[in-house]
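Teaching soon. Got one?

===
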Amino acid sequence: MNKVFLIGNLTRDPELSETNSGVPVCRFAIAVNRRFSSQDAERQTDFFNVTAWRNLAETVAKYTKKGNKVAVTGSIQIRNYEDNAGQKRTFVDIVADDVEFLTPKGSGSSDDGDFAPAPRKKPTLEAFDDDSDIPF
């Protein structure tokens, strides 16, 4: 099974484009902190290239920008190619199945159509004094 789950921050604004056949594709990169620090107490960071397709691509491009925190669920795709100098290269990409926006509205996200989590209401307790229905 090829399944990956990453939480990180966008390192650049998403780039939305279309294939020759008109299918939307969005490419972006995220920085993910490792769980443990190195010996010199510095946290290591890994950088992942992510590709989203179709409606997900359009949604990511519309609602995220550099610095936003996202959760990406998808699969790892590895491609091998030969560069102009004849060197063999390997490209690792995350193909997104789902992207959840974790940056709340008003914290630096885009001005039009910000993601906003559902507002939370504090429960209110009301006094209830009706001892007449208690059978004992």
Remarks:
- The mean pLDDT is 85.
